[in-house]
Amino acid sequence: xxxxxxxxxxxxxxxxxxxxxxxxxxxxxxxxxxxxxxxxxxxxxxxxxxxxxxxxxxxxxxxxxxxxxxxxxxxxxxxxxxxxxxxxxxxxxxxxxxxxxxxxxxxxxxxxxxxxxxxxxxxxxxxxxxxxxxxxxxxxxxxxxxxxxxxxxxxxxxxxxxxxxxx
Amino acid sequence: xxxxxxxxxxxxxxxxxxxxxxxxxxxxxxxxxxxxxxxxxxxxxxxxxxxxxxxxxxxxxxxxxxxxxxxxxxxxxxxxxxxxxxxxxxxxxxxxxxxxxxxxxxxxxxxxxxxxxxxxxxxxxx
Lengths: 167, 126
What we know:
The complex is a heterodimer of chains A (167) and B (126).
Chain A: H1 19-33, H2 46-53, E1 58-60, E2 71-73, E3 78-83, E4 90-95, E5 100-102, H3 111-127, E6 145-148, E7 151-154, H4 158-166
Parallel strand pairs in A: 1-5
Antiparallel strand pairs in A: 2-5, 3-4, 6-7
Helix pairs in contact in A: 3-4
Chain B: H1 3-13, H2 18-25, H3 29-37, H4 52-60, H5 64-80, H6 86-94, H7 96-107, H8 112-125
């Protein structure tokens, strides 16, 4: 299994890597998943990649009454609010850290949206389970300018980095 | 082992994803997740899901031994849903802390003596 080294994470457990590094990581993972993956163009079986290669615990659950939440990742073991399929009422389910939940109805049963949501949440599940929630910065942008890949870019806060990498 | 865990095990052994198996047997991925997690009992004689057990057995390609276990566990699952009274079930559904307490009790193998102490403390406060 391809994973990041400790150096890729900041002191708060947030992954901070460049776009190129992300591309290389994805390439390495897909090659590890299937040796001849890049021999000819073909679609990725996202479900198989997540469930059978990454061995992620994937749940398909309704996450909101109005379809406002497409997906979520469980960072720490605990109770997650979901809308029960049989009663259509909110209830809390105990899920382990790393579990990803996707609401197919919220994704409008659109295969593209479902696949994107699955992949996005799998990013969180792979990258963000060791974050220190008490320390990560969820506030406004930090206006510093830093150089990444030879380009000057605006540095983002920790939450932005998490969403950037997951996407 | 419970029905849901066994179902999940057999599905994983055959490298079938949730959506793939759900599609093969004609149920929603959400319902399959609920069955595997034990949040819903196996539906007995359901008009909505006719012959669901047979479909599962066929698509999972279970051998005779596995089939026997599968059917037995499904039957136990159907019976279990009637053992917990609805008022207790409703209470658990609406009180997340009660669920948390039960999980901790299960994980720490709480004894009858532990529960007796707890019940006494609850009654004392009232």
